[in-house]
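Annex B. Sample input.
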Amino acid sequence: MTRRQFLATTAAVVSSGHRLRGRWPRVLLDLQGGCLRESLAGYARVCQPRLVRADTSSIPHCAVLLVPAALEISPVAARAIVRCLHAGATVVLESAAGFLDERAFRTERAVLRDYFGITVESPVRLWPRQTPYVDFLWPYAAKLRDFSRVVPLGPQAGEQIGWVDGLPVALQRRSGRGTLIFLGSPVGPALWAGDADATRWLSAVLATVS
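Annex B, continued. Sample output.
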C-alpha cells in the first residue's frame, strides 16, 4: 500500500462516522476474562470505539463490531453478535482459541460452529519459525506478524483471506445482512504493540464498510 493509498484509507475511516446515521461507527465487545487483554487494548487504541461489556443485555446498533482475541464466547454474547450480523453490521471476530487447553478448545469450537457456521481445525503452534508472518490477500496483499499460535479453518463457504504455512486462517463472508470476518490469528496484539503494518491493514478493512 502506498502512502497516498494509506492516507486516503485513513480519511475514509475517519469520515465514515459522519455517514452512518443512527448507529455507532464502531463497537468493541469486551469479553472480559474471555479474551486476551492485549488484543482488546490494541483495538481500543487504534479504532477509538465504544466499549461494551459482554454481559450487557444488548449491543448498540453499529456499523462495525470488533470481537478481539476470543477465548470464550458465552451463548449470550454469541447471540448478541449474531443479532448484529443480521442487522447489517460487519463483525470482525478474532479467535484466540489456539491458546486453550483441549477441553476448552472443543467447547469454543462448538460455539464457532453452532452460532457462526465457522469450522476450525486443531490449533497449530507456529514458533519457532523463520518467517513469522500471516499472508493476507484482502483488502490488499499484506504480511502481518503472527501471534505464535493459529486456528486453521476447515472446508467451508466464504472467501479465504489469510494464510500461514499453507493453512487458511482467515475468511470473510456474508452472514445475514452483514459481513463476518474471522481471524484465526489475532491481529490485536500487533495493534497494541504499535505495529504500523497491522494498523494500515485494519484501517483498510474498516474503510470497506460504508
